[in-house]
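Human: I would love a firmer grasp of how sequence relates to backbone shape in proteins. Could you go through the record with me and say what the backbone is doing? Here is the record:
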Amino acid sequence: MITMKYTVLITIAALVYTFILGGRVGMRRLKLGVDAPAISGQTEFDVAFRIHMNTIEQLVLFIPMLWIAVTVIGDIWAAAIGAVWIVGRMIYAAGYTADVNKRRPGMIITLLSTAVLTVMSLWGVVQAFLS
């Protein structure tokens, strides 16, 4: 049986982080008086909203690739790459919050992490078809 305890932990961490970002949006909504269903208002709200939405957009790519890759590269490697993805999201959020032009390093880390997981997943699929 393949153990996946670290990948499970990383998955939970990514989801909890996304939930926290959603909470930040809600708090900014209250603080700045941006009433639902508005999705823009003041810059501080807009930044929090975009950080959260972009993280959700990336999560849709990340989670399936993480879980396919774990079957190819194993629990520890998949979880390690997943941890890099989470750190990338944190760097993205910090950069975006400081200055919209500083979000790029975090985005690059996020995209590279997902790309590595995707390549590993494709490699595993190709191997399965060739064997």
